[in-house]
Amino acid sequence: MPASVNRANARRWGASPALTDFHEFPDRDHWTCAAPGWEAVADHALTWALAHVRTAPDPAG
Fold this sequence. Notes:
By secondary structure, the protein is an all-alpha fold. The protein has two helices and no strands.
């Protein structure tokens, strides 16, 4: 999928109440999870998730 399509989708998602972000990984294709260097993409995603985590209230009180 071209990066331009992903950027356009990210702009549309930006209008939603959901927490969204866009980061382009140059020279990566759609099958990043199996390509060499996938760890850098996973590290970026984990860092982003940890920075934006929201804790749910404890149902036990």
